[in-house]
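Final report, closing paragraph on structural work. Over the funding period we assembled a curated collection of sequence-structure pairs, and we close with a single example.
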Amino acid sequence: MYKVVLLNDDFTPMDFVIAVLQRFFSLNTEQATRIMLKVHHEGRGVCGVFPRDIAATKVEQVSAFARRHQHPLACVMEEN
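Its predicted structure, as stored:
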């Protein structure tokens, strides 16, 4: 299993991070806000834990979505 992790940056708007968490991880507003604040304050936040292929797909989807919207949001996966 692999954790999908968002990394903080000084440019991506908080609302965009919340939208990413809702869109790609099916979180409600409260859950997405909690993870966004963790990313903001601690530098990183776990979005979920998935099998390797699903985690890799989510990382690519989030990264592509951020690039399309010209945000430097970084999303990585780590072995759990």
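The longest strand covers residues 44-50. The radius of gyration is 11 Å. We thank the funder for supporting this effort.
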